[in-house]
Amino acid sequence: MSTGRSSLIMAAGTVTSRVLGFARAVLLAATIGVTTDAADAFGVANQLPNNVYAIIAGGVLNAVLVPQIVKARSHHDGGQTYIDRLVTLILVVFAGATVLTTAAAPWLVSLYTSGWSAEQLALATAFAYWCLPQLFFYGLYSLLGEVLNARSAFGPFMWAPVLNNIVAIGGLVAYVVLFGADPTGARAISGWGADQISLIAATATAGVAAQALILLVFWKRVGLKLGLNFKWRGVGLRPAAKAASWTLGMVLVTQLGGLVQTVVASSTVAARATQGLAIASIAASSIAWLIFMLPHSIATVSIATASFTKISTHAADGDIEEFKRQVGASLRAILAFSFFATAALIVLAYPVSRVFVGEYPATVALGNVLIAFMVGLVPFSFVFMLQRAFYALEDTRTPFIFTSIQTVVFIASALVIAQTVEPRWLVAALALASSLSILVQAIIAYRLLRRKIGAFQGVGLTKATTRMLAAAGLSAGAGAGILVGTSSLVAGSFALSSVLGAVTVSAGIGVVMLLVYFAVIALLGIEESWTAWRAVAKALKGITRR
């Protein structure tokens, strides 16, 4: 299967999942709000399993599994013994970690918060007891999915989250029917009962479990079966462990930065009592990050995942020129999408935020955080692909170096922000500091990759980047001109007075910006414009035939 076709299959799954994820986030915001104490309590609790997962194996599975399984396919049994032993080892680790972290829920909640009342800590801890078992299923999902990716079965990994969102949405709908919605935080923290807590948090965990278990069906389709094998010695796990050590170090460093960001962001909760819904905190940051991740997941993850197996094969064969060609082509495709997404979501930040919150002060607070995050989308996606290039070369030490530099820059900035920025702007300032530190990371990562493999001759990456940036600027100018000209950024405007208005304005201006962007990059001779249109046309033609 070609990289383009694989990317389309994964992008389709990602789009479907993200659309449902948006619906889930909108429903959650309508149920418990975005800038409320209950929303922040659930936000911390639901993020904990992701944080612990990242510490245990976040990048390790991606960095280690695909290259090692590609190599293991040359074994006499096609790599089945290797897979069985590696899967068993990882599942045992995740099972033990899940039990320990669930027991440590009160301590973890206290670690990730600052200045919270006893009642809010208790609510977050109750949520955490239900959410932390997600850790085991996140591990299972990533493990099963990466093995499928190594076998070039890319679709299931991207489509499984659809089931997760469906289950979680069902739980939220049941909550609204049984207990009613409270988007402004009128219900006191002490008024939350065990039935309310369990309905929201337990269905969130059930969704993650369903997302993982459905992949077992696709294992059977590619001729694999989940066989536990506890004989871990003598099968060649030492190279995987060596590669994982640097990646684990990188993840630990990243999580340290995430811990600082969460603690500083949580400190704004105390100011909400006097300044109201204008104060963004953890839940607002999570929603903004969800929106930020939409274009990254649709394009970057799909392209990088589809090309990862190919570049791993080129690296294993010692074909560096083909390796560079594939990496360069993937980077150009990623940048073509990311530049437009950055322009569109910065310009439309307030109307998009209005979809999630009803009050104008909360819309502005969320919109400011989103704008700050979007500044970092292009370098974030760039780094994501460069990391996969290093992983394909079985070099996990270099990503540790440039990620450590990024984390140090961010932590230093966050500590200054915590002392100098007023609560109203604090979370947006943290998001901007994150974006700028990622820009530093991207520059360093690119230079280190060029030092390792040489220049990307014939790829035209610098020229393409400059022209895409110009196209994005003109596109943003067109969109901003329409917003300002129609007074769509003021309270009570059509764009900000209702969800329907926000969606209508965002869709209309988004189409105009897209046409301007593609027209400009086409005139400037950027081939990705025509490639994108051909890919869309091919996909539509295939759907019509079916």
Describe the structure.
The chain is an all-alpha fold. The protein has a domain of 204 residues. Helix content is 80%, strand content 0%. The chain contains 23 helices and no strands. Helix 2 runs antiparallel to helix 11, helix 3 runs parallel beside helix 7 and helix 16 runs parallel beside helix 19. It starts with a helix and ends with a helix. The C terminus is likely disordered.
Question: What attributes does this structure have?
Answer:
globular, 80% helix, mainly alpha, 546 residues
Q: Which structural class matches the secondary elements?
A: mainly alpha
Strand content: under 5%
Helix share, percent: over 70%
What's the main sheet like?
none
Instruction: Please give the radius of gyration in angstroms.
Output: 23 Å
Order of helices and strands: HHHHHHHHHHHHHHHHHHHHHHH
Shape: globular
By DSSP, the count of extended strands is: 0
Outline the low-pLDDT stretches. 539-544
Mean pLDDT: 83
Number of helices: 23
Terminal CA distance: 18 Å
Summarize the structure.
With 546 residues, the protein is mostly helical. It has helices spanning 3-32, 37-57, 60-72, 80-103, 105-111, 118-131, 134-150, 155-179, 194-213, 215-221, 238-266, 272-275, 282-317, 320-347, 349-354, 360-374, 377-392, 397-420, 423-453, 461-485, 494-497, 499-523, 528-545.
